[in-house]
Amino acid sequence: MSKVDYALMYVTDDSIRDDNHFFAILEGALKGGATIIQLREKTSDTLAFYKRALRCKELCSNYEIPLLINDRLDIALAIDADGVHIGQSDMPYEVARRLLGNSKIIGLSVSNKEHAEQPNAQAADYIGISPIFSTNIKTTDLAKPLGILGLKEIRQIYKKPIVCIGGIHKDNTQEIIANGADGIAVVSAISKADNPEETSRELKNILCKTGTN
Ligand SMILES: Cc1ncc(COP(=O)(O)OP(=O)(O)O)c(N)n1
Ligand SMILES: Cc1ncsc1CCOP(=O)(O)O
Ligand SMILES: [Mg+2]
């Protein structure tokens, strides 16, 4: 795969069960300039997840934007996604790599400096600092927010791309990038926006001005 642009990751909102609404937001995010998409389904059954994944893949392919699958290696393999995002309690990194091969993207969540120093984080394609700020979207298994100081500390020891997630919106994006992140991952900033396409474009403009592209 050619160089991946992690600047603006839209992580889909699994609370949106209506497919028309779900895919309208996804298309808005893509039109506005999302550079990578992560399909995150925490409550749907396997068939529903698989069907959404197939439609996401088609839509993302139309915009030539990579699609990652959250947690589920089987879904990623089934639809030949571009990669997965896994957390500290998900499938071990080395197993995910063995199953997916070297050409796929694997992102790993880190919640402290020790996580970022571990061999699996060093081997991953990128890390997701999780969470950078507090969020209302993910309420289980969520570590204490690392904040800008935590980001700066991890930036000093981690050389590959860093994506931050949690409580990110237009007013704190610039600060995150200025302090060493390569990209932001957002759920509600886009999914709950009155105009997801416009918001995605505004976030992208901030990212471009601050220098991720
Ligand atoms: C880019 C990015 N970073 C972190 C996460 C969180 O992953 P995880 O800790 O596995 O939690 P869930 O998203 O699976 O609830 C993420 N999804 N994306
Ligand atoms: C999936 C996830 N992982 C850490 S925070 C989070 C949710 C981020 O949602 P929002 O961008 O709305 O704060
Ligand atoms: Mg996970």
Automatic annotation (TrEMBL):
SUPFAM superfamilies: Thiamin phosphate synthase (SSF51391). 4-amino-2-methyl-5-(diphosphooxymethyl)pyrimidine binds at Q38, L39, R40, E41, K42, N70, S109, K138. Transmembrane segments: none annotated. It comes from the Bacteria. It holds the Pfam family TMP-TENI. GO terms for cellular component: cytoplasm. 2-[(2R,5Z)-2-carboxy-4-methylthiazol-5(2H)-ylidene]ethyl phosphate binds at G167, V187, S188. Mg(2+) binds at D71, D90. Binds 1 Mg(2+) ion per subunit. Belongs to the thiamine-phosphate synthase family. This is Thiamine-phosphate synthase. It comes from Maribacter aquivivus.
